[in-house]
Amino acid sequence: MNPLQRALVEKTGHDHGFEHVLASSQEGVTLASARHAARARVSALPASGYLLHLQAATPALLPEMQRSFAQALHAGGFAVGNEAALASLLGRSASLARALPSQAALDFEAAVSSQLAQLPAGLGGTEVERLVRQRVGQQKFRAAMLDYWGGACAVTGLALPAVLRASHAKPWAECANDAERLDVFNGFLLVANLDALFDRFLISFDDAGRLLASSALHVDDQRRLGLQPDMTLRWLGEAHRGYLAWHRRRWEEGTRCWR
User: Fold this and answer.
1) Which of 48, 80, 149, 212 has its CA 20 to 30 A from that of 113?
2) Angle of helix 103-117 relative to helix 83-99, nearest 10 degrees?
């Protein structure tokens, strides 16, 4: 890798989620970030382009990247032809590294500790602390969902953050712990109308990602709400399915009540 290539890789990394250069030589460039635990090793391909190898702190990162960039798989990494394509790889891997377990949980604990330290003495362990944890947790969950889904609705693909909601499959109050509450696989980023329906178990999704509508929703109501028979999640990871099964059980209970 020549000096110009190294400079371009370092700049691309800095602008796309890997702001620290850990090593830079003829063999390649190793990048890292203070915002997540993933590392990226970029080397030059013999003819042209770059080869990216990721060192992931969470086992979910590589499968997600392999699904998203299947056409770039090469020699245990990802091969791309230019800096623009490398930027896409680095940006997506940084977003996933911030969103996937357990980075979101670590960020949550750090943020909660910081905010609790600012409370007056004697409020620890009170309702105030519970509310702080819930508010911070919901903010972190939404940020993680925006990162994971690329800022677009999991069904429609609408990329307008102001109308997107981070919907839990297993509700916050019913989760066993903070790890479940903050798990990016415990929910979907949805436009507001789908979020309201999903939150009230009036819609759910099957294991293929197809939308399921409750019998409580008349066909005319479904049309007015913008529901279409072919609506499907843009993708569905294996880790989503356990939470979805929980959500479907509640959806089915509600559906039976309306029959």
Assistant:
1) 149
2) 60
Q: How many CB atoms lie within 10 A of CB 243?
A: 19
CA 174 vs CA 180, 186, 243, 247: distances in Å: 9, 12, 12, 11
Cα separation, 214 vs 253, in Å, equals 10
Residue-wise pLDDT for 183-241, tens only, equals: 999 999 999 999 999 999 999 999 999 999 998 999 999 999 999 989 999 999 899 99
Q: What is the pLDDT of residue 85?
A: 97
Is 182 in contact with 142 (CB distance < 8 Å)?
Answer: no
Identify the sign of the CA torsion 31, 50, 157, 234: negative
pTM flag (> 0.70): yes
User: Which two structure tokens, joined as six digits, stand for 224?
Assistant: 């007015």
């609408």: which residue's tokens? 158
The Cα angle at residue 40 between residues 37 and 43, in degrees rounded to 5: 165
* Pairing mode of beta strands 50-55, 73-74: unpaired
Residue 145 CA to chain centroid, in angstroms? 4
Interatomic CA distance for residues 174 and 186, integer angstroms = 12
The answer, yes or no, to whether residue 11 has pLDDT greater than 80, is yes
Helix (H) or strand (E) holding 211: strand 211-213
Q: What letter represents residue 191's amino acid?
A: V
Q: Is 26 strand, coil or helix?
A: coil
1-37 exposure pattern, b = at least 16 Cβ within 10 A, e = fewer: beeebbebbbebbeebbbeeeeebeeebbbbbbeebb
